[in-house]
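Per reviewer request, we include the raw input and output of the structure prediction for the construct analysed in the revised manuscript.
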Amino acid sequence: MKRVRGTLADARSAIDDLRSKSEEIGFLKERITSLMDHFQESTGMGGFLDYRLHQVLDVRTAENCYYIIGECITNAAKHAEAETISVSIWDDDKGRLHLTVKDNGKGFDVEKSKKKRGHYGLLGIEERVRAMKGQFNIKSTKSKGTQIEIT
């Protein structure tokens, strides 16, 4: 029953995410900060946000970044047994967007995870990155946790 309740809560959260209003995405820093605050309150884990974005993102890109960060945070809380998670988002002098999410959890086998049925978090992130015509890199080691880098 505990797993069923957790799965139901995840499904409701996903539906709420799909229903979010696009105009709310304009406040990306505030939304990420709120997401991180909620994460820290609900898990007790430490969270750090480094926001150095100077450009105003289009709605679709901002929405994708927000949901990618949310998925990474959820994964860290559910699977990583991490104590801290850090999120960095910035743009370089060529206008490229960079997003890094890193946790200090137990890590996992990336290739094995991609083949697991019923696990769509990383696939969803990859699809969002592809929609933004970006690049996606994930590193995970048992002693250093997981780092997702998106450009």
